[in-house]
Amino acid sequence: MTAFIVAGDDDCGSMVFDSLPGEIQNFLKNLSVEDGKLLQSLSGELKGKSLDDVIAAVKPKSEELANKLKEMANGLATKIGALPEDGQKFMANLLSSVEGVTDPQALSEAVKKVAASAKNLPKDVQDKITKDFPSLKELLN
């Protein structure tokens, strides 16, 4: 799993946010001010870390936030695990491509690059991905 840090209120940041899986969007939307400040204070330490590493770093400071991160990760893992093998590989590639990327423009470019590879997936796999992750539909079309 990958830790996402999406910053900025510009169009690029908004487009990237809108393309994130619903589980990540909901997690970010439901962050308290305190949670946001904690993540921001740890951002340098967390940059490029796996979600498991992020959870381990957050847990001593906020068990509640660590649990929210685990819940988000478990929801994503369940949905990704239900995809056909090609879809699982695509989603793993998508998530790993943005690992450690905090700049919205760089994040957008990384997502677009991987999304372009979706055209090589069988149509039924593309359909399953966009059904299970509707926020990716625009990127994959």
Supply database-style keywords:
141 residues; mainly alpha; Four Helix Bundle (Hemerythrin (Met), subunit A); 70% helix; 0% strand; disordered N terminus; lipid-binding; coiled coil; Gp-FAR-1; DUF148 domain-containing protein; signal
Question: How would you describe this protein?
Answer:
The chain has helices at 11-19, 22-29, 33-46, 51-58, 63-81, 85-97, 104-116, 123-132, 137-140. The protein is an all-alpha fold. It has one domain: Four Helix Bundle (Hemerythrin (Met), subunit A), CATH 1.20.120. α4 (51-58) runs antiparallel to α5 (63-81). The protein is globular, with a radius of gyration of 15 Å. The chain starts with 10 loop residues before the first helix and ends with a helix.
Q: In a few lines, what is going on in this structure?
A:
This protein is mostly helical. It is built from nine helices and no strands. It has one domain: Up-down Bundle (Four Helix Bundle (Hemerythrin (Met), subunit A)), CATH 1.20.120.
Describe the SSE topology.
Blueprint: H1 11-19, H2 22-29, H3 33-46, H4 51-58, H5 63-81, H6 85-97, H7 104-116, H8 123-132, H9 137-140
Helix pairs in contact: 1-7, 3-4, 4-5, 6-7
- Which regions contain 5 or more consecutive residues with pLDDT less than 50? 1-10
The number of helical segments is 9
User: What CATH architecture do you see?
Assistant: Up-down Bundle
**Level of helix content?**
55-70%
Q: Note the overall shape.
A: globular
Strand content: under 5%
Compute the separation of the termini in Å.
24 Å
> What is the name of the CATH topology?
Four Helix Bundle (Hemerythrin (Met), subunit A)
State Rg: 15 Å
The tally of strands reads: 0
Major pleated sheet: none
Overall residue-averaged pLDDT value:
82
CATH class: Mainly Alpha
Helix/strand class = mainly alpha
Q: Number of domains in the coordinates?
A: 1
Write the H/E string, N to C.
HHHHHHHHH
GO cellular component, one term: extracellular region
Family: Belongs to the fatty-acid and retinol-binding protein (FARBP) family.
Subcellular location: Secreted
Organism: Steinernema glaseri
